[in-house]
Amino acid sequence: MANSKYEYVKSFELPDNLLPSTWIIVRIDGRGFRKFSEAHEFEKPNDENALMLMNSCAISLLDDFPDIVFAYGVSDEYSFVFKKSSQIYKRRASKILSTCVSLFSSTYVMKWAEFFPNKPLKYAPSFDGRVVLYPTVAHVHDYLSWRQVDCHINNQYNTCLWTLVKSGKTNEEAQKFLKGTQKQEKNEILFQQFGINYNTLPPMFRKGSCVFREEVHEISKSKKVKKKVVVDHCDIICPGDMHFWNEHPYILSDDQ
Amino acid sequence: MANSKYEYVKSFELPDNLLPSTWIIVRIDGRGFRKFSEAHEFEKPNDENALMLMNSCAISLLDDFPDIVFAYGVSDEYSFVFKKSSQIYKRRASKILSTCVSLFSSTYVMKWAEFFPNKPLKYAPSFDGRVVLYPTVAHVHDYLSWRQVDCHINNQYNTCLWTLVKSGKTNEEAQKFLKGTQKQEKNEILFQQFGINYNTLPPMFRKGSCVFREEVHEISKSKKVKKKVVVDHCDIICPGDMHFWNEHPYILSDDQ
Amino acid sequence: MANSKYEYVKSFELPDNLLPSTWIIVRIDGRGFRKFSEAHEFEKPNDENALMLMNSCAISLLDDFPDIVFAYGVSDEYSFVFKKSSQIYKRRASKILSTCVSLFSSTYVMKWAEFFPNKPLKYAPSFDGRVVLYPTVAHVHDYLSWRQVDCHINNQYNTCLWTLVKSGKTNEEAQKFLKGTQKQEKNEILFQQFGINYNTLPPMFRKGSCVFREEVHEISKSKKVKKKVVVDHCDIICPGDMHFWNEHPYILSDDQ
Amino acid sequence: MANSKYEYVKSFELPDNLLPSTWIIVRIDGRGFRKFSEAHEFEKPNDENALMLMNSCAISLLDDFPDIVFAYGVSDEYSFVFKKSSQIYKRRASKILSTCVSLFSSTYVMKWAEFFPNKPLKYAPSFDGRVVLYPTVAHVHDYLSWRQVDCHINNQYNTCLWTLVKSGKTNEEAQKFLKGTQKQEKNEILFQQFGINYNTLPPMFRKGSCVFREEVHEISKSKKVKKKVVVDHCDIICPGDMHFWNEHPYILSDDQ
User: Mean pLDDT in chain A?
Assistant: First the structure.
């Protein structure tokens, strides 16, 4: 085409290929979701429908990107693990990041009414994202452990805080009351003052959500193992909780 | 918090700040939009509603990000120019890219029904994006010229192609027929065979869409010049078409 | 060749091309030069021979790299300005940085005996380096001003400090004595206590060294303007000292 | 200091920290060494003194940088492996690259006379360098295998070529003669025509040079294992030649 005079501007597009043979994790975070959750009256400390909508978006990503082998979500964030041998988009960071964030965002709006049939979306939500590389499976385990420990800490705190608030304390009073309390103390407050056994609260709230491909054992002519994307709320903290990883060795094996 | 054991994984997040004092352009492209436009029966070669939906998303970005001073859209792509002094998100490339793509994508779905009231969205669309830096205003002019020249070339070709197809040729026959024809020849085909004067077709189709802040002259107490985001279909190719830039010197002045 | 099995490791070499049309500055710094200067008994606060050796290395770089249009040196550091249109090594940062630092380092040792005929080099000196990009000529002016202002500040301080030390004070006493003094006060100390007029000290000490190509006006058959690399100790702080830049407009013009 | 007006230019220095927990390899290559070796009449195909000078420079780097655990050199190139946990210079790529190349270059000149007592250095040699990251020990093994296989291929070819040239052929005739010959054929040419048993040529020529820390077993009061930097010409191609690595497990263990 006759566009040569200006086409030199393309030379300013610099390559951003990610180091080969390294685990790619894309983490997406709600942008201004405190305001968004208030505007849409999300239940506190956890809105089951909002979390299930997030999970549904994550499933869409695993359906669209075969190289995503695992995803972990909590609150308004989701992490997507690409297998380390992935050659998706020639491992161009911008392309990987932007398509993930874009599909997650559009799916969030698309599926909103499915999870909030009676709440119209007041404005378009948005997410930011980043790409991080990890050299080994051990790092990926530690990354996911980091997120799930964060989930535990934040959820226990928020559960106490909102229980206190619902019982009549102001937010500030509740925060002051909880300041410096240890994990065990928080559980006791919940149990003794409110009869709540923290450990029996819904696993999705306490553990976050794992999205991955589960092997489906069915009689098929091809004898190939089929897999389908599922959501579960498992313990994935390493090295303490290796049960899940031992049961699903293929997820991070990178030779699937 | 007691998350220290795993928190080291955060050290793998490397900085990606963009060079200061440089124009940032984020370009968004529809991902698989050929299929998407067929699935949603977009009119060929241009679907006015689809373009207006794109424009509406671009307006949302200018409303949300004051540092975007100009946007140019054609077909399923949109370019956003951030002023060169922008400190948005400390100029972190991933953050800027991901929030732009995200908001554009969610807004696209959110506003779909406004432009396609009778066509339900069949699946979630997505966009990819990239960030490019340009050192001077002259480069930004050339970048925008590059995109508008591309618009001209593609639109003229597509207009001919689809006119021929609608007249009974197959797509292959039409392509073969157009192969090697010059700009002037294409206009003559349109005019002599179909009575179409290319230059009177809608400017949005021929020139794409410019989104920017127009100064609003009204009597206000503060005496500050107000601006509002508008869409126009102007000639912006430099140095040929300096009229627009001369009329709007503040857009790329970077001291607004 | 039959090296294919292992050749995949080359794919881990990622591109590092610098943004086009941007001024490239390579700054080299002596590594551990406090120790090096003591080991080789450099005169304090300035060793003329050591500075002239640095200048001689800088000249070698301008002789080898036509794209270096200006260099500025002070103490054990040197900055090299590549013209903004330079395509040297396809603008690969590592290649540019490593060859500059390498040639500077090897030349330093090679020419040592020329400047220190009676002092054998006790061990190999080394330099570190970095590459920085600047979008406009104004930034390059500011960069060079930054370095020359630093030269002024440091040299005035060091001149006072070492004059006091040579007069019998300990280093700590001299530092304490100078703490908080302003530029003018320092000059007065030098003049009133030691009869030293700071402004008549050698320009190389006070202003650092500029290395550039001077136009040589001679009757030549080709009528082309010849240039040769020279060292000068000019005032280059902008916008105050524009004299040098006005006299040498071709240096940063980028169309030579 | 009063340098604030211009100090903003420092903000253009962007971070370039390397991914943590990844093996860093710095490879240095002679720049224009064909010309340099001709100017200094290096013996062909291998100049023992030139290689020993290269090795001596590599030893200097291991002496200076404890984090370099292994180096491999062949011809005018040298690769330095930093342990994956290295925090040297906060893993800033430019700093690591530039100091390595600088020290190598200055040492090369410094030690020249030791290896070439009767040949003055005609001009300053220079090297370029690059930094490459590898996620696992297996990649490091493959990287080093890649370089040693290259050494084998090139050295066998060059040995044949220069033997033919010394026997009277022109360089072009020799190249033509060797074109398409396999490894075994080359060995037979050397043996049958010139009585040279390739496998008895000096190991340094055939295998390149490995530089590493050898454990020194001596009776010491501290009972700590001492190590000293040595040069050897070992087989290091994996997985074929694991003998060396099995004998020196601590070199790439990263917990030394």
Answer: 94
* Record: contact A21-D139, CB cut-off 8 A: yes
CB atoms closer than 10 angstroms to residue B120 = 9
Q: Which of D252, B11, C12, D97 is nearest to A22 (CA)?
A: C12
Asked whether residue D29 is marked as a ligand-binding residue, the answer is yes
Q: Which of A114-123, C156-165, D220-229 is predicted least confidently?
A: D220-229
* Cα(A208)–Cα(A235) distance, integer angstroms: 9
Give the amino acid at C27: R
Cis peptide before D15 (omega within 30 of 0): no
- B47 in a structural domain: yes
| Total residues belonging to chain A | 256
The tokens describing D226, both together, are: 């001492």
Q: Does residue B147 form part of some domain?
A: no
The phi and psi torsions of B140 (rounded to 5 degrees) equal -65, -45
CATH number at residue B208: 3.30.70.3000
Neighbours of D85 (CB within 10 A): 13
pLDDT at C220: 62
Helix (H) or strand (E) holding B50: helix B48-64
The torsion defined by the Cα of B239, B241, B246 and B249, in degrees rounded to 10, comes to: -70
Backbone torsions φ then ψ of D73, nearest 5 degrees? -125, 145
Residues C112/C115/C119/C125 CA torsion (nearest 10 deg): -30
Q: Is A9 left (phi over 0), alpha (psi -120 to 50) or beta?
A: alpha
Peptide bond into C125 cis (omega under 30): no
Nearest chain C alpha carbon to A13? C19
Residue D220 has pLDDT above 70, yes or no: no
CB contact under 8 A, D14 and B11: no
Contact B26, B97 (CB under 8 A): yes
Sequence-distant (≥ 6) Cβ neighbours of residue A242 within 8 angstroms: none
Residue D196 lies in a domain: no
Pairwise CA distance, residues C238 & C141, whole Å: 6
Amino acid at C43: E
Beta-bridge partner residues of B26: B80, B131
Q: CB C13 to CB D102 under 8 A?
A: no
pLDDT, averaged across chain B: 94
pLDDT at A225 over 90: no
Question: Which residue numbers in chain B have pLDDT < 70?
Answer: 1-3, 219-223, 255-256
Count of other CB atoms within 10 angstroms of residue B149: 18
Q: What is the pLDDT of residues C234-243, one digit of tens each?
A: 999 998 889 9
Q: What is the pLDDT of residue C63?
A: 97
pLDDT number for residue D3? 62
> C14 vs A19: CB contact, 8 Å cut-off?
yes
Distance CA A79, CA A94 (A): 16
Can you give the pLDDT at residue C239? 87
Position C151 in a domain: no
Tally of domains in chain B: 1
Question: What pLDDT does C215 receive?
Answer: 84
DSSP code, position A49: H
Host H or E run for residue C203: helix C203-207
Residue C256 has pLDDT above 50, yes or no: no
Residues 6+ apart with CB under 8 A from B173: B164
Three-class SS state of B44: coil
State the greatest distance between any 2 C-alpha atoms of chain C, in Å, as a whole number. 77
Mean pLDDT of C148-166: 95
Residue A58, domain extent: 18-146+209-247
Compute φ and ψ for A81, nearest 5 degrees.
Answer: -100, 115
* A19 chain-C contacts, CB cut-off 8 A: 12, 14
What are D's interface residues with B at a Cβ cutoff of 8 A?
11-12, 14-15, 17, 19-21
| Residue range D130-178, pLDDT digits in tens | 999 999 999 999 999 999 999 999 999 999 999 999 999 999 999 999 9
At A256, is the pLDDT very low, low, confident or very high (cuts 50, 70, 90)? Answer: very low
